[in-house]
Write a structure and sequence with these properties.
Blueprint: H1 2-12, H2 27-34, H3 44-75, H4 80-129, H5 132-136, H6 140-182, H7 184-190, H8 193-231, H9 233-238, H10 242-294, H11 300-341, E1 363-370, E2 379-386, E3 391-396, H12 402-409, E4 417-422, E5 425-426, H13 432-436, E6 439-442, E7 451-452, H14 453-458, H15 466-475, H16 479-484, E8 492-493, H17 502-516, E9 520-524, H18 532-546, E10 550-554, H19 558-563, E11 566-571, E12 574-579, H20 581-587, H21 590-599
Parallel strand pairs: 3-10, 3-11, 6-9, 9-10
Antiparallel strand pairs: 1-2, 1-4, 4-5, 7-8, 11-12
Length: 605
């Protein structure tokens, strides 16, 4: 029984994680990704490449100077002057290599960070233009993951990968050419370690990286659970679900721990294996190299140069393996990023869209049909007219289409059939910003942004002065509670405005809307019950807010409905009745029954 209960609880927590971390190489996608480097092709990119070339060239030359020239020539021939000259050159070259490396890292990091900054900005700007339908189909978390994690995983590729690839290829080619020139036999002999090195730097490393990826997935699951638990703590406590919650947490925490243990065990194998391979290479060099010295096939200087180059082998091979892995990961991440970037807003502006100047606020729905998806129609040929300056109430059962009508007026969606017109302009022909600039939407659940009360009210009109903000707050009766807050208008409120009550948040959103001074106001009245005093304040505030503009209210309060100029009664996406309160009551139809059932206050009317 207990187990069954737990299983039910576990079903509650379903976190989707985007697990595809690698994709096959795709040239077209790669070129598109690298096109983000274009703005830097005249400064950071060439500068970094020059530093790479200098650094690689210098590092390739130094072992020859040490082995072949210093040992074989200056020391064996006891040429003091040549020795001093070579030592000075080697010291100078090391300094150049150090400086070139310093600037390479500095400019490459700058290039990588700038590209990441640009991609993130591009993606965020684009996501902001997307239609509501895009957000209907995705959770905020999955969008966040793309803007943060997927772009982060490209960071290494751009910061180190791309340019290091060039450096490593030149370095490896350079080492081989020099080694072959010095001694082809010894070169072939020490090549035995190459396949092992490639194996370690690609397969083994990928295996380790996948294990770390699993750790990250487990961590994000843990994060999601923690987030949900803290957000929903009040509900958890009131339903006494702490034990079940803890059991689930324990499971995710253990998974996280186990995945970490596997990854760190694999990781621990890496370094010793690399060192073992290096030791194998050194063994071959000593064994076969000393044989070649004895047979006079090579000099001691060549032997020493070989030892230096052998030490330089690992770094480029290891990094090539890493870049390869980064490229595969970059493919998966960039595919997800491009999927968002290629998403077109469903509600788009025509190229010759009209800018609506000061509108009057006359709204018409002409035979409007709309569905969110193929399965169900939300509006079935709705015809309605709202005259400029009128207050219109939309009433009806839940799911009858009230919010949909409001959404179409703001043009968050386009109708599937028919037309929505404002002042005679079909909304399909007007520019979105000029339309939305003149409409304010006040939602039931007022969104409070983190910032001060000032910032929150000013959201609708960022250029408003402090005095204008205070005036708007006074007009809707919000000034009283704001002044009682610890820092008045400068009080910091959190993301969801937890320190404010439902009624206070409503008043704040009224002040925000009043300050924006829209021609059309869409208001989804809060359903939450609030105390009579606040209720009265809200009613008074509403009167101020509605004055002089067209207002569409998704009404839940009888007092609001009664004072409306017109009421539309909706049912399953159709307008059943329309008129003012008295007319509709006289009809004794759907409205009459709705009022009777919902408000149970007929006697009072
Ligand atoms: N984003 C959406 N995607 C798919 N279907 C939706 C979406 N929003 C609403 N619907 C569906 O469209 C129909 C009308 O919904 P709408 O939100 O307009 O109703 P409503 O009258 O405002 O209801 P409520 O009073 O509960 O807010 C409902 O069947 C609803 O399930």
């Amino acid at each position: 029984m207990k187990k069954e209960k737990n299983e039910k609880v576990l079903n509650r927590f379903q976190y989707s994680t985007e697990e595809v971390i690698e994709k096959p190489f795709n040239w077209k996608q790669m070129l598109r990704l690298f096109s983000y480097m274009k703005p830097y092709r005249k400064d950071l990119l060439p500068l970094s490449i020059i530093m790479v070339l200098i650094n690689t060239g210098v590092r390739l030359v130094i072992p020859i100077l040490i082995g072949v020239y210093t040992l074989d020539k200056a020391l064996i021939e006891k040429d003091g002057q040549l020795l001093a000259f070579l030592v000075a050159w080697i010291a100078g070259l090391y300094t150049i290599s150090y400086l070139a490396n310093y600037f390479r890292i500095k400019w490459m990091n700058m290039l990588g960070q700038s590209v990441i900054y640009d991609i993130r900005k591009h993606l965020f700007t684009h996501v902001q233009t997307l239609s509501h339908r895009f957000f209907d189909q995705r959770s905020a978390g999955s969008i966040l993951v793309r803007i943060m994690n997927d772009i982060n995983s490209l960071q290494e590729l751009f910061t180190n990968g791309v340019i290091n690839l060039l450096m490593d290829l030149i370095m490896l080619a350079g080492i081989f050419i020099i080694l072959f020139t010095l001694s082809p036999e010894l070169t072939l002999a020490i090549m035995v370690i190459l396949p092992i090195m490639f194996f370690i730097s690609t397969s083994l490393r990928r295996n380790i990286r996948r294990s770390w990826q699993t750790v990250r997935l487990k961590q994000s699951k843990l994060n999601s659970h923690l987030n949900e638990s803290i957000q929903g703590i009040r509900i958890t406590q009131s339903f006494t679900q702490e034990k079940e919650n803890m059991a689930f947490f324990d499971g995710v925490n253990t998974e996280n721990f186990e995945s970490w243990r596997t990854a760190s065990q694999k990781n621990a194998m890496f370094r010793p294996l690399v060192e073992l391979t290096n030791a194998l290479g050194t063994g071959v060099l000593i064994w076969y190299g000393s044989h070649l010295i004895q047979t006079d096939a090579i000099t001691i200087g060549v032997f020493v140069s070989f030892a230096f180059y052998l030490g330089m082998f690992w770094e480029p091979i290891s990094r090539l393996g890493m870049v390869y892995n980064q490229l595969l990961m970059g493919m998966a991440s960039s595919e997800r990023i491009f999927e968002f970037l290629d998403e077109k807003p469903i509600v788009s502006e025509k190229t010759n869209a009209i800018d609506l100047h000061e509108i009057k606020g006359h709204i018409e729905f002409e035979d409007v049909v709309f569905s969110y998806n193929e399965k169900r129609t939300a509006l079935n040929g709705v015809c309605l007219e709202m005259k400029a300056g009128q207050t219109v109430a939309l009433v009806g059962h839940t799911g009858s289409g009230k919010t949909t009508i409001a959404n179409l007026i703001s043009r968050f969606y386009d109708p599937t059939g028919g037309a929505v017109k404002i002042d005679g302009h079909n909304l399909r022909d007007v520019s979105l910003s000029s339309l939305r600039h003149q409409i304010s939407v006040v939602l039931q659940d007022t969104f409070i942004f983190s910032g001060t009360i000032f910032d929150n009210i000013r959201f609708g009109r960022p250029d408003a002065t402090d005095d204008e903000v205070i005036e708007a707050a006074k007009a809707v009766g919000a000034n009283g509670f704001i002044e009682k807050l610890p820092n008045g208008y400068k009080t910091e409120v959190e993301e969801r405005g937890n320190i404010l009550s439902v009624g206070e948040r409503q008043l704040l959103s009224f002040a925000r809307a009043l300050l924006a001074d829209p021609r059309i106001l869409i208001l989804d009245e809060a359903t939450a019950s609030i105390d009579t005093e606040t209720e009265m304040k809200i009613q008074v505030a509403l009167k101020t807010l509605l004055k002089g503009r067209t207002a569409i209210i998704i009404a839940h309060r009888l007092s609001t409905i009664r004072e409306s100029d017109q009421i539309f009664v909706l049912d399953h996406g159709n307008i059943l009745e329309q008129g003012n309160h008295d007319q509709l009551m006289d009809m004794k139809g759907e409205y009459y029954h709705l009022v009777k059932a919902q408000f149970n206050m007929l006697e009072a009317i």
